[in-house]
Amino acid sequence: MAYLLRRLLHGALVLVGVSVLSFLFVQLAPGEFFSDMRLNPQVSPETIRHLRAQYGLDRALPIRYVRWARSVAKGDWGYSFAYGLPVSKLIWSRARNTLLLTITSALLAWLISIPLGIYAAERRDRWGDRVTVAGSSALLTVPDLLLALALLILAIRTNAFAAGGMTSPDFAELGTVAKIKDVAAHFTLPLAALVLGTLPIFFRHVRAGMIEALALPSIQSARAHGIPRSRILFRYALPAAANSLISLFGFSIATLLSASLLVEVVMSWPGLGPMLLEAILARDLYVVIGAVMLSTFFLVAGNLVADVLLYLSDPRIRRGPA
Amino acid sequence: MVTTEPVIRVQGLRKTYVHERPFSREKFVVRALDGIDLVISAGSSFALVGESGSGKSTLALCMARLEQPGEGRIWFEGQDLFRLSGPELMRVRRHIQLIFQGTAAALNPRFSAEEIIIEPLRIQSVGTRTEQRDRAVHLMEKVGLPPVWLSRRPHQFSGGQRQRLAIARALALEPRLLILDEAFTGLDLSIQAQMVALLRDLQSRENLTYVFISHDLSLMAHVADEIAIFDRGRIVEQGQPSRLFSNPCQPETRALLEAIPGRRSVLGLGQS
Amino acid sequence: MSRKRMVRIAVVLLSLLYGAILGAGFLAPYDPAEQDRAHPFAPPTRLHFVDAEGSLHGWPFIYGLIPSPDNFAEYQEDRSRAFPVRLFVSGDHYSLLGFSCRRHWFGIDEPGHIFLLGTDGYGRDQFSRLLWGGRISLLAGLIAAALSLSLGMAVGSVSGYFGGFVDDTLMRLVELFLAMPWLYLLFAVRAFLPLHISPTVAFFLLVVVIGTVGWARPARLIRGVVLSARERKYVLAARGFGASDFYLLRRHILPQTMGVFLTQAALLIPQYILAEVTLSFLGLGVGEPVPSWGNMLGSLQQYHILASYWWMLAPALVLVPVFWGYQVLADFLHERLEFGH
């Protein structure tokens, strides 16, 4: 238990560290939201000064950070200049969409790569392995951007999938079933891009982990005892490879979040990505910080889940120190 | 000065290590050195004999000033090793050389024999590039290795040859004290005999003091003129080889003697 | 295909690519910024060997293009006017190693045009832009990787060699950087830079931003190598000869990090090329009129361009051989230098 508490504390510290870092980076920006307003003759300098004071931009950096932290504690996450709303109000629906995309694609990628990795490891260096390895290597050489663009072209050309956005223009008028269908149709393309982009990375790890597990003396001797192959694979080797796979799970969240950012922008999926881009272009500071913080939070949470799984699967850690 | 001062004087040396086992809060303390007093006079061959893992190597590292003791002092020719200024220490390092246990690991596999031998000279900025090269040739001859092998890398030498290479490197700075930590371990008997002959020869020509560290009492009886028996961080008995063999006072010494196969013949060797 | 041969092919391929972008001025038939307003979105020019009469030519030639009068960006070949492809023609100015040149690898006599990879919306030659844009993108990858690796090297070796408090602090910082999703991090750092800047400044800022974001992983790996290297006996031996920390790092410890260094370089360079492409694609990197693979792809965010003009995808397609080459190299280096003998 103490182990998990320590990991929790570590995660919290990482979040605080990231908040300070991103606050520092973003606040050091030479331009700010209101600097574009200065060029507008209809806005008096008086108004701008007033606005800046209202948002606290005339204060020193540490004070701004404390104010921001207080607003985080209140659940507002700062204020968006562009929308005049608390950041949390803007960000939650976006975060939900990003999560929907990343979690589904993570599950799908794992569901495909684990059996595939086991299959390849089992027939190591035979042609079944060679084909899958060559396929994954080929997929690995396709950058995410090209993958997303190529899938979009496919969608536009064939008209098979809805391309772009999350819903059709007439979404509001649809019935519940049709609504779900509509979202699912829009969902397919970004999902495919993310799964295809992360699959080869996961597959390689699963395969390597399984090859290592199959080489363990205990499993070699299980083989020699004539225990059936499937039983060896799933009852012996997979648990032995579990640890490295679980820690990979935490790491895979980072890859997915970054890949998702790009895919969302290219396919206009209304997630955190397009909002972040828009906020950067508008210098909407607190939205930028909010998006970075939230993505870091997902990552830390993913790592914590991995830690919990590791804790449950590995008795050594439970007996561990402190 | 030098003639009256012993080469090494050790007083009250203590050193403990605290081990923490991974995944455990248990700590256990190892007393590597537990109050060592020693005097080694110039030109002698001193041997420190004890079971492996009894902390002898720690003493070697302290004497070469590569390890700080917890307590106690060491004087080299009257100078306190642990109270030297930077330049003073640099000068003293020339005079004390250590040959490590497991020589292969003490030679950088990426270096050529020449680079290995002249490394001390480069670090101490002794001589020009060509002088260093001449020195390397000379040192190779001195330890009985063909100078044409200077371009070889450590893995191209045999175990005994690597040991010679390590000695050549240790001699590069013309030291006065040579500490040899298990220098003969892992070499076969004929090579051991060659090494002993080489070291004797060098000692007569270079005015060297040797400190041998070994677990092999019979071999040490052969090469040293003073032996200290070391057990669990302490020196339990000290004396000339013949005295130790004929009249061991301590149980640890007797245990070491009994570990020697065919002791009688060795005894004869020790007394010769 | 044997492993060795694959590595050899990868090296040759990468050298050809880098050679091509270095010689962009000579190899490209046009200036990358030159606009041909009469030919927006012209498709790749077809090389012909057989003329209208059906007789075979030993040397390729092309036909002129006539814009369709009814539709935007539709063209027909003008079979009445053939232009032979000429070698070493005189054309636009470019500078090569500081010399001003105007000799180009190949070209077409006026008023013909040769667009090997078509044109973009301003009628600029995609082939020329691809070569020039590769300079920005590939160079950004190299410089940013060099920056990341030197930062990682400095932090990793200090951390691993000196240990203690310094090590703890630096490693917490590394964890912090590794804990952030890198593209978000890149965006956040980019957010603090001015938006409207000259392409040159943008390029250097971009390189610095990408390079600073990625130092953490190499730093941690190099720390690991240094940590084990400093425990070697020969390091202790050299210390016994009076070697300084600087000497030990330079002569004994840093040479051992070479394997990790090279492998990381082969992994980071393509990642950073992609980072430049991504940022410029999103309008946060190098801007017009200077071409980069990223900003050349930018117009594809409009779906009708993406759907109609497939040749606009060329800058994304050239990433595939780049990625493949580096992947083969990285696998090879990883096996040979980090584990092998």
Can you put this structure into words, describing what you see?
The complex is a heterotrimer of chains A (322), B (272) and C (341). Chain A has helices at 2-27, 45-55, 61-74, 87-122, 127-140, 144-158, 176-214, 217-224, 229-266, 272-282, 285-313, 315-318. Chain A contains twelve helices and no strands. The mean pLDDT of chain A is 81. In chain A, helix 5 (127-140) packs across helix 7 (176-214) and helix 7 crosses helix 9 (229-266). With 322 residues, chain A is mainly α. Chain A is globular. Chain A has one domain (2-20, 95-319): MetI-like fold (Orthogonal Bundle). By secondary structure, chain B is an alpha/beta fold. Chain B folds into two domains: 6-95 and 175-271, 3-Layer(aba) Sandwich (Rossmann fold); 103-174, no CATH class. Helices cover 38% and strands 25% of the residues of chain B. In chain B, the strands form two sheets. In chain B, strands 6-7-8-3-9-10 form a six-stranded mixed β-sheet, sandwiched between helices. In chain B, strand 9 (226-231) and strand 10 form a beta hairpin. The radius of gyration of chain B is 19 Å and the shape is globular. Chain C is an alpha+beta fold and 341 residues long. Helix content of chain C is 57%, strand content 13%. Chain C has a three-stranded antiparallel β-sheet with strand order 1-2-3, with no helix packed on it. Classes of the chains: A mainly alpha (322), B alpha/beta (272), C alpha+beta (341). Chains in contact: A-B, A-C, B-C.
Profile the largest sheet of chain C.
3 strands, antiparallel
The CATH architecture of chain A comes to: Orthogonal Bundle
Structure annotation, total helices of chain C = 14
Look at the structure and give the CATH class of chain A: Mainly Alpha
